[in-house]
Amino acid sequence: MAESPKKPHVLMMSEITADGKLTLKRGASSKILMKYMDPATEILLHTTRAEYDAIMVGSNTIKIDNSYLTVRHIKGKSPIRVIPSSMADIPPDANVLSPDAPTIVAVAEKAPPDRVDALRKKGAKVLVAGIDHVSLPLLMRLLLEEHGVKKLMIEGGPTLNWHMLHHRLVDEIRLIHLPFIVGGSDTPSLVGGMHIDSEQDMIRLVLKNHYLCGTNLVTEYDVLYP
Ligand SMILES: NC(=O)c1ccc[n+]([C@@H]2O[C@H](COP(=O)([O-])OP(=O)(O)OC[C@H]3O[C@@H](n4cnc5c(N)ncnc54)[C@H](OP(=O)(O)O)[C@@H]3O)[C@@H](O)[C@H]2O)c1
User: Fold this and answer.
1) Could you tell me the pTM of the whole model?
2) Parallel, antiparallel, or unpaired for β 54-56 and 151-154?
3) Best residue among 34, 36, 60 to mutate for probing ligand 1, ranked by most atoms within 8 Å of CB
């Protein structure tokens, strides 16, 4: 029998425009786009957060969006917030370090000790998961084995999304489709990183559900790796 992977079950959830973008332009906060989500979809997002043990976004999303990543709009427990930041350079006044929910910052061994101390002083748990850079497979194992995270949702951005898919760590994708086109060849889209070289490398998705949530189309997929 195949050994089950030592990682949580991972859902990637994102709001995307009709042209697959996550924000208005490079460097812009996705909060601007999120204002146009139907209130019912906002509730879906927060209900999903409450169903998960932990939520992860990339450190650049923290710098640009300054997200709280808590459960609001409904009653429910906020998940553990997880931020991979190899050099521990999350701004010490970032909203994600608020006392509303536990926060884990995953860093590399090379992270400067003064920055690590500043994060600890703000109440964050600092997890060393890699030498030069955060190793996402190692982080997944530590979250499962040492922090009891059985279900993890990730909410972007595109760099984190690419690395998670590249390491075959994402099991499901749920997209909230926003009926806008923003354009821009360098506007962040759902998945960034490197292009693939051949059709054999395409990651295939199996559509398993689609529905309207308020006025927004929601699609749900299982991920099949080549
Ligand atoms: N519409 C939406 O649902 C949505 C959601 C989230 C974000 N966004 C948008 O996405 C944009 C930001 O995306 P982004 O691609 O620039 O950044 P990102 O994916 O949020 O963060 C990437 C950063 O995470 C850190 N990191 C640490 N370890 C990593 C690892 N193993 N793999 C990958 N990343 C790792 C790296 O920074 P270090 O080198 O410093 O560690 C990396 O540069 C913003 O405009 C934001 O508004 C949209």
Assistant:
1) 0.96
2) parallel
3) 60
